[in-house]
Amino acid sequence: MIGRIEGIVVPLVTPLAEDFRVCELSVQRLIESVRPHATALLPALSSGEGGQLKGSQWSTMVRYTVRYANGLPVCPGVIVDTDDELMARSRLAADIGAAGITVVVPPLDGTDTEAVIERFRRLSLASPLPLFLYHHGNEGDTDAVVQALSHLCQLPHVLGIKESSRRPEIVHALNQCALPCSVLQGWEDLLWQSPGADGHAVALANLEIGICARMRSTPSEPVQHEIDRLCEHYRLFDDDWYASIKRELHRRGVLSTALTAGAMHATLGVA
């Protein structure tokens, strides 16, 4: 099992070719563009349209990411409807050579928290790969959410958590818990408000990983202001932020197209 995942973790977009297959050369170029500062790669998460990819696209994206990671840990997002499918993808990712899988934490509003913790305990023990958690819900009392996330982060075989609830106080509180896994801030505009975080896992890293690394090594308000400006410029707070990232990467020649999985569904008439 790999150790804690810290530093600049990149939630990769999923490059698609004109036929909507994953474009191998674009994946290679994308990884090479972030390699100077990346410490891990998270393909097929929300920025990678993980919930919209066909199974074949998902497995191909994971395979290409591992192929060109050159030692960087790869923890693909597994956004599926059932735990059986989650385990199947975990086994497939393990066979491909991934270091872990990234799993979305469901709402922690207090009603089913114990059931969520028990479910993740089972998953952490059953999965052939360790778990990287992704929490983006803004529900529930802060103290209760921190307590629940602390329990989840102390389960066996948990590598870390991308905390994206838009409550930086949760990152701060988790940092005070001396957890065995890492805690990463998942929102670009909250990096300055999350001192002590073990790293950043932000979509901007697809485009401007250098400034993300600078915010990590020498955090300051001026750097945060520049990050905020870049997010506005690239429209990273729009609902289709991943499409904006793809358009810019296509303009730069990193991606062969700017196509999204949504465009695939519309073209092919997939529900």
UniProtKB/TrEMBL annotation:
**SMART domains to which the protein is assigned, alphabetical:** DHDPS
Coiled-coil features, chain-numbered ranges: none
Which InterPro entries does the entry link to? Aldolase_TIM (IPR013785), DapA-like (IPR002220)
Q: Which Pfam families match?
A: DHDPS
Record-linked SUPFAM superfamilies = Aldolase (SSF51569)
Q: What are the entry keywords?
A: Lyase
- Carries keyword Protease? no
**PANTHER family given for it?**
N-ACETYLNEURAMINATE LYASE (PTHR42849)
Q: What is the name listed in the Swiss-Prot or TrEMBL entry for this protein?
A: Dihydrodipicolinate synthase family protein
Q: Which organism is it from?
A: Paraburkholderia agricolaris
